[in-house]
Specification:
19% of the residues lie in helices and 35% in strands. By secondary structure, the protein is α+β, with helices and mostly antiparallel strands. The longest helix has 11 residues, at 181-191. It is globular. The chain binds flavin mononucleotide.
Length: 192
């Protein structure tokens, strides 16, 4: 028997812990936490945003970065979601270090090991939908194994909206584009 939840209490999982980095018109860096975002093409990210210091900054610079919350950065990741850059310099208060992306006018926060550098492709304040073209990605060498991003080293986190908590990402349990062949092959045998 299923239990029905109203539409405002839906749980979509996993949700991301995206840290959006921006500069204001004076070059002051800011960061905010966003759960409602995902990859929408090979080089595209789409995020649902209310009006924030972050969106004001993007309107001025046309650029942003997206880093990913990790076990080691969970406290600063949450801080970036409970304080506004309209009131304080969150980057300074959190003790973070930044440098400017070589590709877009947005900061790379050095405490986070993986960061997308994005050009603002579309921002609609009415729908709150931000679309970014990913022009490059920076990964700290400490999270790379055999030329690939290694999530066991990176230790990314997800946001659990059911209980308002952060969870770590678990171990590999199967190989994609392969596991399903256990059924596909069996069905094809029966079909033939
Ligand atoms: C776990 C978590 C997820 C959040 N997800 C979003 C989101 O997807 N969209 C959004 O507009 N705000 C989201 N927020 C709220 C913003 O991070 C928050 O309002 C922040 O203070 C905005 O920062 P800024 O004013 O410096 O830009 C989230 C906050 C937390 C803690």
């Amino acid at each position: 028997m299923s239990v029905e939840f109203d539409a405002k209490n839906t749980v979509i999982t996993p949700e991301a812990v995206l840290i959006i980095g921006t500069y204001d018109e004076n070059g002051v860096p800011n960061a905010m936490n966003a759960a409602w975002g995902t990859q929408t093409d090979f080089s595209e990210i789409t995020i649902s945003l209310s009006q924030h210091k972050t969106t004001e900054n993007i309107e001025k610079t046309g650029a942003f970065t997206v880093a990913f919350g990790t076990v080691d950065t969970v406290t600063i990741s949450d801080y970036f979601g409970v304080e506004s850059g309209k009131k304080v310099n969150k980057i300074a208060k959190a003790g973070c270090h930044v440098h400017k992306s070589a590709h877009v006018n947005a900061p790379i926060i050095e405490e986070f090991p993986l960061t997308l550098e994005c050009r603002c492709k579309d921002w609609n304040p009415e729908t709150g939908i931000l679309v970014g073209e990913i022009v490059a990605q920076q990964a700290d060498e400490s999270i790379i194994t055999d030329g690939k991003i290694d999530l066991d080293k990176m230790k990314p986190i997800i946001y659990d909206s059911a209980i308002h908590a952060y969870r770590s990402v678990g171990p590999v349990i199967a190989t994609a584009f392969s596991e399903g062949f256990k059924i596909k092959k069996a069905v094809n045998q029966w079909d033939n």
